[in-house]
Design brief:
Elements (H helix, E strand, L loop, with lengths): L2 H9 L5 E4 L9 H7 L4 H4 L3 E4 L11 E6 L6 E5 L5 E6 L16 H8 L12 H8 L7 E4 L11 H4 L3 E6 L16 E4 H10 L3 E3 L1 H13 L10 E8 L2 E8 L13 H6 L18 H5 L3 H7 L5 H14 L2 H8 L4 H20 L1 H13 L1 E5 L5 E7 L5 E7 L9 E5 L6 E5 L6 E8 L4 E5 L5 E5 L2 E2 L6 E5 L4 E2 L4 H10 E5 L6
Parallel strand pairs: 9-11, 12-16, 13-17, 16-18, 17-19, 17-20, 18-21, 19-22, 21-23
Antiparallel strand pairs: 1-2, 3-4, 4-5, 5-7, 6-7, 8-10, 10-11, 13-14, 14-15
Helix pairs in contact: 5-13, 8-12, 12-15, 13-14
Length: 500
């Protein structure tokens, strides 16, 4: 900030915009760059002209509600007079709380904080146009500078004043629904979504849209997509509830990590596999999926390879050169000059390779798949096919519906194991069909009195079914012939339910 701007702010004559740096402290010398990476240090230290945040003017007038944020980010919830909410988040990070208490006052804090520079602080500005073209939900962020003497934040001022902050919609609660969500009735977090999904089987996830959203994550190099990075739009129809994914917190887009000696060593897939670098190709794909493995396992278990590739082809077609180039013009001019052309080149290359990446992502997720019911009673049917495939269907027990609410055919050259998880309720597991060799099947009965019927005939493998349940939780009313076969093909284990 130049002296004239400082004097105006000090006098109370606040300008509409000021020239500031987002994080000059990341501009380190040669040795720091050599060992810990060049990253985006130059962008953090580049002066840019940013609008000054004015509480009474932003979004028609806002007022502070509550302070929050994760372990690294300061965030303040704001609301309009109508109750619509926004969140103001710091671009710079404080990683102290992510470390064990014994390390919080050591040099490790500075080392970890320094790696904030691996993220492009202006990347969120590029994403609305790209997300819209890709056909997924999105926020519309803006970056502001909050002056040192801004009194409108009240008791929150010490945490906010004098910082560069990102303002975006807070998609939480029905009051924050917008026309983008169509006929949605609410917006909820992942915790509530998962709780409902596994309590009742009339709650389901739009797995197709989630796959599309996850492809976009990988495309833009956003590796930090754990369950806390999602909200869910709620759609109700004829007694059924469908959850559609709404991504948030795009802080790690276009991540650049492995350009230093130490960070290159740390990014080894045996160490910090999640810290992947945004190149023109995808590199180690499991690394891009690592942080989202919990939510991916629960929200992508029905998506076929054909669907993954179809979404990738559609995104590839939608993100034309013109769309990408216009999106990057949302960057401040000095930032675009330093990073725009090279990032555009890499993004176009990744776009062109997205269908191949989608097929590989499918293969990774297909190796070991869990099919979960709910705490209500269900019927699980696993049919062994002569080809070696296994068709899995899940029905609502006692329902008049003839169609399953889950159906997928698994291929033995893709899938090593399928886990059927009954959770609560008195579930039925029916295994049938005939094959020379079949995919390993794990059956978790869960709570309740469950029934297992196995009439399948597998000629080329032993012990391809394992059943886990409490000692009294599973009933097997089987013929002597089947019992004899089960003695070598099925292992019964005591199982204390931990749930999903």
């Amino acid at each position: 900030m130049d002296q004239a701007e400082k004097e105006k702010i000090a006098s109370g004559n606040i300008p509409d915009s000021v020239t500031v740096t987002v994080g000059r402290h990341y501009d380190k010398g040669f040795l720091q760059r050599l060992f810990f990476g060049k990253h985006y240090r130059e962008l953090w230290a580049t002066p840019v002209k940013l609008p000054v945040f004015r509480m009474q003017e932003a979004q028609g007038g806002l007022s502070p509600v509550s302070l929050g944020g994760g372990f690294q980010t300061t965030s303040l919830t704001l609301k309009t007079e109508t109750g619509k909410q926004y969140v103001l988040r710091s671009l710079d990070k404080d990683p102290q709380k992510t470390l064990p208490k014994g390390l919080r006052k050591s040099f490790v804090v500075n080392v970890v904080r320094d790696q904030t520079s691996a993220a492009n602080p202006f990347a969120p500005l590029v994403l609305p146009d790209l997300s819209k073209a890709a056909g997924i939900f999105y926020t519309s962020p803006a970056i502001y500078y909050v002056t040192e003497n801004d009194s409108t934040f009240g008791k929150f001022s010490p945490r906010i004043n004098g910082k560069v902050m990102l303002l975006e919609e807070k998609f939480d609660g029905k009051q924050n629904l917008t026309p983008m969500f169509g006929n949605a009735t609410d917006l909820v977090d992942s915790e509530e979504m998962l709780l409902n999904r596994f309590e009742k089987n009339n709650y389901q996830i739009d797995q197709s849209l989630f796959a599309r959203s996850r492809l976009f994550d990988v495309l833009i190099g956003d590796w930090d997509r754990h369950e806390g990075q999602w909200q869910w739009a709620v759609y109700k129809n004829d007694g059924q509830t469908l959850y559609k994914p709404v991504p948030k917190d795009r802080d790690q887009t276009f991540y650049r990590f492995e350009d230093g000696i130490i960070t290159w060593l740390a990014s080894n897939r045996l160490l910090l596999k999640k810290f992947q670098t945004f190149h023109e190709d995808y590199g180690y794909l499991p690394g891009w999926l690592f942080n989202a493995r919990f939510i991916d396992a629960r929200a992508l278990n029905e998506v076929t390879q054909a669907e993954w590739v179809r979404h990738a082809e559609e995104i590839k077609a939608a993100l034309t050169d013109d769309v990408i180039e216009r999106a990057f013009r949302e960057l401040p001019a000095p930032i675009y000059a330093k990073t725009g052309p090279v990032t555009i080149f890499r993004l176009k290359s990744r776009r062109d390779k997205l269908p191949q990446a989608a097929a590989k992502i499918y293969e990774i997720l297909a190796e070991d798949v869990t099919v979960a019911g709910s705490d209500e009673p269900e019927i699980f049917k696993a049919t062994r096919l002569p080809s070696g495939e296994t068709k899995v269907e899940v029905f609502r027990k006692g329902s008049k519906e003839k169609e399953p609410f889950y159906s997928r055919t698994f291929h033995p050259d893709e899938t090593d194991a399928i886990t059927l998880h009954g959770l609560g309720g008195n579930d039925e597991f029916e295994i049938s069909g005939q094959a020379r060799k079949a995919i390993r099947l794990n059956v978790y009965g869960g709570e309740g009195e469950d029934e297992l019927t196995d009439t399948s005939k597998i000629s080329g493998s032993n012990r391809n079914i394992k059943v886990y349940d409490t000692k009294r939780g599973i009933q097997m009313e089987l013929t002597p012939e089947i019992k004899k076969k089960l003695s070598k093909d099925v292992a019964i284990h005591a199982y204390d339910r931990e749930g999903l």
